[in-house]
Design goal:
heterotrimer, A alpha/beta (342), B alpha/beta (282), C mainly alpha (285), B: 282 residues, alpha/beta, six-stranded mixed beta sheet, four-stranded antiparallel beta sheet, 12 helices, globular, C: 285 residues, mainly alpha, 13 helices, 76% helix
């Protein structure tokens, strides 16, 4: 069941949908005389191309969720952007997220949508599914009620969902079905950019396989770009074209997924890949020394140096820049490529 | 050859539906297996949500009673444990490790409070100095130390570290059995192996048996001796772990194995393309 | 402890103002111990004098210095309110936490009793008590009875928090750590319950004082012992407003407003400080 691309990019658009330059976003908490500055996003630059699945990997303390919120312009005090810029190019429509907040508001759901962890954060438990579609998508489509309903039903069918699901309440569906409804909801307006934040993390393994397959299929059909955030490297292996590794608010490495798995340049990437279990292999996996970094008080120089197996003196004093890597990506490490894998 | 834990045709039924439609679901349906007392082992219960594995965990810990059948631990039927003294004797031998370490520890309480309480109740530590000594020994066994953990709150530690503290706490009473309900599913993928390796060493060095409940076949393969696979409350396949997982027979087990994402991009993208072939997904 | 107070005073304006207002009240109450006149005496000074340099708050038609009357009244009323609030708090916390945690039949029985008691109308019961006991009615008995009537609503609030805490994983974890029920309730659950307790204490205090004022205005208490309500009763009895002695009514009312405002500000700011969510935010969670 193959489909032609449902939208064609307008003339005069660049190949990049998202450009982030030196973004810094901190949580600044000032309560009862205690001031805490948590540097969740500390100088990140990256671009996401058209029609690509771009993964962001990292552990829980890496700041990747804050990065996502900052991307979407969905941050609130005590979190604020203290530097840098986030710019979108939705098929010719250029928006600077923090300079033009109103344009960004109008673009939501139509050009930029989200798939969250936990479908219940999107679906209102006391309203039927069809109301969710009405609330989120109706005003963007410019169709009358009946045409809208037909469009939604055909969209659901293309995703392998029974259109009767529209009449159901969220609790009547299983977790997997709900997540699929969430994906349908996020893609019904055919957005150019989708943010997926740990969409399969709490799901069973069979459901995860199904949901990931669905996401990949929809992405291929619509030609949208997806930023997919998860700590699970196997999920990145399954679905992403390019992958970025985040550590303590900064990027450690970025590159084409297959190349990163075959030949990781940064020691942290190498560790993340080596720590994955595989069926058929019972050799002992080593774990990383030290504690996860504190974003309020990060280590000096390269933030990974206290736990790095190949750290040298320079690593604690200077901050490594993101430079082109040997595998066609970028890496921020003074000893890039020197880590031995497996 | 006595049994450490024996489940004998255990069934647990839950009522569902509202006022006018009283239906029931069998969360656990006629399950039987046993762990023997002589050799410590890691026994994995694999299943997805709705398979009944969490209900099994609750029954094994004595938080629920079965509607049919019995659970017998060390010769005592768990359902007959009533008095506080009996309950504390039971808890001294069976300890849990919960799924979500950030929920298991009260965010307002210091983490060591749980360890000290366990030391006081189960290891006869009365003075602060004794409690700290017992706690430190337990923490060393999981690769941590009192210096790292003392005075800390749960948000100051990572999920992996917290889980290790939870395991250390479970070890203080020197239990014979640890029931770990999805202990690594909420922990970052890269930190999971340290916890899983820890379970291996608990079995080998401390001779503790572990019931390892999970939906992750890869880690089950890695450490378990025997495995049972559950679907909708019924055991559909069981046996030696390597045998069952290298070569599953039941279609559901095969589908489960095929759904595990290998850590290689080519194989993993092939795995997700395989979806919807085989067992219908909920 | 002092660091907490200092932080609150320095950074929280509500707490600062609340403290100032309450300090005024406290100063007045302390002054009552140094009164030159016996508080029950009448016609000790020139009656009906307006506020001025000699009598700061004027005098009333019974020949009592308003300032010293106020001091004594405030002391008595406040003591009544505090006794009621403290006793009913303790009962509410114990009943709410235990009932919510234990659950099952015990919970149902306790809550049935709770709701029955709560359905009883307060003022008529107290009036009944006053009529029955008449001369043996003392402030102590009244306070105790009011305390018995004042805990039912709040125990339900606390119970609802206890119910939600019971199902949280850390409660099970605490049980397996060998903590006994009392320990779990006190150490693990109480911090979550404290914000509600604080808020309801303030409510309860206001309710108790209001009760006292109501009964006194109606003349159903020992009106010779000065209380805020008593002052208003006597002012009405002497038709103060008609006679132009406005300060007799104004003084107790303004004092009560200052008291309640101060309590409110304090309660709000301390509540925010001890709320688990704000505590966690400050700890850096």
């Amino acid at each position: 069941m193959s489909q032609v691309l449902d939208f064609k990019p307008a003339a005069g658009t660049s190949a990049d949908v998202l450009t982030i330059k030196d973004l810094k976003a901190y949580y600044i908490n000032d309560m009862f005389g205690v001031r805490r500055e948590v540097r969740a996003v500390d100088g990140i630059s990256l671009t996401v191309r058209r029609n690509e699945v771009y993964g962001i990997a990292g552990e829980s303390s890496s700041g990747k969720t804050s990065l996502i919120k900052t991307l979407a312009g969905a941050i609130r005090p005590p979190m604020q952007v203290v530097g840098g810029s986030v710019k979108f190019d939705f098929g010719g429509k250029h928006i600077d997220v923090y300079a033009e907040p109103r344009k960004m508001q109008a673009a939501r759901w139509q050009n930029l949508s989200y798939i969250m962890q936990g479908s219940m954060s999107v679906l209102n438990p006391v309203r039927r599914i069809k109301h969710a579609f009405n609330d989120f998508a109706f005003r963007h489509m410019g169709l009358d009620r009946r045409a809208f309903r037909q469009r939604v039903e055909s969209h659901l069918q293309k995703l392998g969902l029974d259109p009767n699901v529209l009449e159901a309440f969220p609790h009547q569906l299983s977790g997997g079905m709900r997540q699929r409804v969430t994906i349908a909801l996020a893609t019904v307006c055919e957005p150019e950019f989708i943010i997926a934040d740990e969409p399969t993390t709490a799901l069973d393994v069979l459901v995860q396989q199904d949901v990931l397959g669905l996401i990949k299929e929809v992405q291929g059909r619509l030609g949208s770009s997806i930023v997919f955030v998860t700590h699970d490297m196997s999920v990145h292996a399954a679905i992403t074209d390019r992958l970025a590794i985040m550590y303590a608010g900064r990027l450690a490495e970025e590159g084409p997924t297959q190349a990163m798995f075959d030949n990781p340049q940064h020691p942290y990437t190498a560790h993340l890949i080596a720590s994955l279990p595989r069926i058929g292999d019972v050799s002992t996996r080593k774990s990383l020394a030290g504690r996860p970094p504190s974003l309020a008080n990060p280590p000096s120089g390269c933030r990974f140096h206290p736990r790095c197996p190949i750290a040298i003196d320079r690593c604690s004093k200077e901050v490594p820049e993101m430079l082109p890597s040997a595998i066609g990506g970028r890496v921020a490490c003074f000893r890039a490529g020197e880590i031995a894998v497996k | 050859m006595s049994n450490l834990l024996e489940l004998d045709h255990v069934t647990k039924v839950y009522p569902v539906g509202g006022l006018f439609s009283r239906q029931t679901i069998k969360a656990v349906n006629d399950v039987s297996f046993s762990l023997n007392n002589d050799k410590p082992e890691i026994f994995a219960i694999v299943g997805e949500s709705g398979s009944g594995k969490s209900t099994m965990a609750k029954m094994m810990l004595g938080n629920e009673v079965p509607d049919q059948g019995r659970l017998v631990f060390d010769g005592i039927d768990i359902a007959t444990i009533r008095s506080r003294r009996q309950r504390e004797e039971f808890m001294a031998k069976v300890q849990p490790v919960f799924q979500n370490p950030f929920e298991a520890f009260n965010p307002l309480t210091r983490v060591d409070a749980y360890l000290f309480a366990t030391a006081h109740r189960f290891a006869k530590a009365d003075t602060q100095e004794q409690k700290e000594r017992v706690t430190d020994e337990a923490l060393q066994r999981v690769g941590l130390s009192m210096a790292e953990i003392k005075g800390r709150f749960s948000h100051e530690l990572s999920g992996g570290q917290l889980q290790r503290v939870a395991v250390a706490r479970a070890l203080i009473p020197s239990p014979k059995l640890i029931v770990a309900d999805e202990p690594v599913s909420m922990v970052d993928a890269s930190l999971r192996m340290s916890i899983v390796n820890l379970f291996r060493s608990l079995r080998d060095e401390l001779k503790v048996s572990i019931i390892y409940i999970t939906h992750d076949l890869a880690t089950a393969y890695y450490i378990s001796d025997r495995v049972i696979i559950m679907q909708k409350g019924v055991i559909i396949e069981s046996g030696d772990a390597r045998t069952v997982l290298d070569n599953p027979q039941h279609p559901y087990s095969i589908a489960l194995k095929n759904a595990v994402l290998p850590p290689d991009p080519r194989a993993a993208s092939a795995a997700i393309r395989q979806r919807n072939l085989g067992v219908p997904v909920a | 402890m002092f660091k907490v107070l200092r932080d609150l005073l320095r950074y929280n304006r509500e707490f600062l103002f609340g403290t100032l207002l309450i300090l005024i009240i406290v100063a007045i109450v302390i002054a009552s111990f140094f009164a030159p006149y016996d508080e029950m005496a009448t016609y000790a000074v020139i009656p009906d004098m307006p506020p001025g340099p000699e009598f700061w708050l004027g005098t009333n038609s019974r020949g009592q210095d308003m300032f010293w009357q106020l001091a004594a009244s405030m002391r008595n009323t406040l003591m009544f309110g505090i006794v009621v609030a403290v006793i009913s708090r303790i009962i509410a916390i114990v009943v709410g936490l235990v009932s919510g945690y234990v659950g099952g039949k015990t919970d149902q029985i306790i809550m049935a009793f709770n709701d029955t008691l709560g359905a009883l109308p307060n003022i008529p019961i107290l009036l009944l008590l006053v009529f029955v006991l008449r001369d043996q009615m003392t402030w102590g008995v009244l306070a105790f009875t009011a305390a018995m009537l004042g805990w039912t609503h709040d125990s339900r609030l606390i119970r609802s928090v206890a119910l939600s805490l019971r199902t949280r994983e850390f409660t099970r974890h605490a049980a397996f750590s060998g903590m006994r029920t009392g320990q779990v309730l006190l150490r693990e659950h109480l911090p979550y319950v404290m914000p509600i307790v604080f808020f309801t204490t303030m409510n309860n205090l206001i309710w108790a004082i209001g009760l006292e004022v109501t009964l006194s205005i109606l003349g159903f208490s020992d009106i010779n012992r000065p209380t805020i309500g008593g002052m208003i009763y006597w002012a009405n009895a002497h038709s103060a407003m008609v006679a132009g002695i406005w300060w007799w009514i104004a003084v107790p009312m303004i004092a009560v407003v200052i008291l309640f405002l101060g309590l409110f500000l304090l309660a709000m700011s301390v509540n925010e400080y001890i709320d688990p969510r704000s505590r966690l935010a400050r700890m850096g969670a």
